[in-house]
Design goal:
The structure is a homodimer of 166-residue chains. The first copy, chain A, is an alpha+beta fold. The first copy, chain A, has two domains: 4-91, Winged helix-like DNA-binding domain superfamily/Winged helix DNA-binding domain (Arc Repressor Mutant, subunit A, Orthogonal Bundle), CATH 1.10.10.10; 99-163, Dna Ligase, domain 1, CATH 3.30.1490.190. The first copy, chain A, has five helices and six strands. Chain A has helices at residues 4-20, 27-37, 45-54, 61-73, 116-127; strands at residues 43-44, 77-80, 88-91, 99-103, 109-112, 130-143. Chain A has a three-stranded antiparallel beta sheet. Chain A has a three-stranded mixed beta sheet with strand order 5-4-6, covered by helices on one side. In chain A, strand 4 and strand 5 form a beta hairpin. In chain A, helix 2 crosses helix 4. The first copy, chain A, is globular and about 45 Å long. In chain A, 17% of the residues are buried. Chain A binds a DNA duplex (25 and 25 nucleotides) through helix 2 and helix 4.
DNA sequence: CTCGGTGCAAAGCTTTTGCATCCGC
DNA sequence: GCGGATGCAAAAGCTTTGCACCGAG
C-alpha cells in the first residue's frame, strides 16, 4: 500500500519544511503523513481520523486539522472543496498535476489532465495582473457508467459515515 | 439598482419553473429573487438575509436557503464554494458565462472569460464518457493592486460580519 | 379547506479554540 | 526545563430539520 521509496522522499521534504519554519518534528505529524501516503484517492478529515483510530493510533481531530494545514502549506497535500461543505484532501507529491470530474449522481471522482489549462492560466494571470499560485477546475456531470445509479446517496450527505471499531 | 426589464424576464422564468414543478408562488420567493437581482457581485446567505431584514422584510434563513436551492436548480443563480466553508451565490441570468480569479490576500473576486475552456470541457466529456453539466474554475493568486494589502483579513473568517440594524 | 411553505428554534456537522498536559529540543 | 504541540471537550459557524401556524391554490 505504502510506496516506501516515495514516502522517504516525502518525509525529507516535510522535515525540511518543519526545520525551515522552526516547527517540531512530532511523531503525530509523521504518522499522519504516512497514513495519507498509504491511502489512495481523496479523503476527508473524518475518514483519516477514523483510519488512524482503527489502527489504535492515538490522535485528536485537532492535530489532524493542524497537520493537514502544514502539509497543504508545503504542497505535499492538496485540499479541495468539491461543492459540499466538507474539505477533501489528496496526496500530491510525485503524482501528475490533474483536475477533477465529479459525478453528481454517484459522487465518483475522476481525474484528467489538459495542458491547455496551463496556457489559459498564464494568459489570464498576465491579462488581469495577477500572480496565480494555483487553481481548481472541476467538471460536474453524470457518468455514463452503468454502475452509477447503484451508488446514489440521499440528498443530505451530512451524517457521519464512518465509525470507530470496538 | 434593479434592472426592471431584466427582472421581469427573470421572474417569468422562475414562474415557469415553479409551475412545472408544481410549487407555490409565494411572495417570499419573489422577494428573495428581487433582492438577489438588485445586488451586484457575489454574496452569501447571511448577507442576503441581513439585507432583507434591514429592509424590514420578514423572512427566515430557512426560507432563504430553500429559495436559493430552487433558484440554483432553475439556473437563475449560481452557487460557489471558493475554498472556504461558506457558500457564495451570484445571479446568473443575462450575464456572460465567466470564471473566477480570487486574491488570497484581500479576497477580492474578479471575473474572466476564456472560450478555450469550453473546448476543454467538451473534449474531456467525450474522452471520459461524461455528460458534463457545468464546471467551476477558480484561479487563486495575488493581485498586484496596491490597495490589496489594506484589505487583509485575519486567518479565521468565521465570524458574523453583518448586523441587523435597530 | 388542504397541505405546501414559512418562521423560529433546535439540532447536526465540520472546523476552531481554550486549557491542562506532554514531550521535542 | 521551556515553550510549542497534543488531546479533549467545548464553542463557533454554516446549514438542515421539526413543528406549529399561515396562506396559496
Amino acid at each position: 500500500m505504502l510506496d516506501n521509496k516515495l514516502f522517504e522522499e516525502v518525509k525529507k521534504i516535510f522535515v525540511a519544511y518543519l526545520e525551515k519554519k522552526e516547527l517540531r518534528k512530532t511523531p503525530e505529524r509523521f504518522a499522519i503523513l504516512e497514513e495519507i501516503y498509504s491511502r489512495k484517492d481523496h479523503f476527508d478529515v473524518e475518514e483519516l481520523y477514523i483510519s488512524m483510530k482503527n489502527k489504535n493510533y492515538r490522535v485528536s481531530r485537532a492535530t489532524v486539522y493542524n497537520t493537514l494545514d502544514l502539509l497543504v502549506d508545503c504542497d505535499l497535500v492538496t485540499k479541495h472543496q468539491f461543492g459540499k461543505n466538507l474539505a477533501q484532501y489528496e496526496k500530491s507529491y510525485g503524482f501528475k498535476q490533474h483536475d477533477h470530474l465529479l459525478c453528481v449522481e454517484c459522487h465518483k471522482v475522476l481525474e484528467f489532465c489538459d495542458p491547455r489549462l496551463q496556457q489559459i492560466q498564464d494568459m489570464v494571470g498576465e491579462l488581469m495582473k495577477f500572480d496565480i499560485l494555483h487553481h481548481s477546475l472541476v467538471f460536474y456531470g453524470q457518468c455514463t457508467n452503468p454502475t452509477c445509479d447503484g451508488k446514489k446517496e440521499p440528498k443530505s450527505t451530512q451524517k457521519r459515515k464512518y465509525e470507530i471499531e470496538d
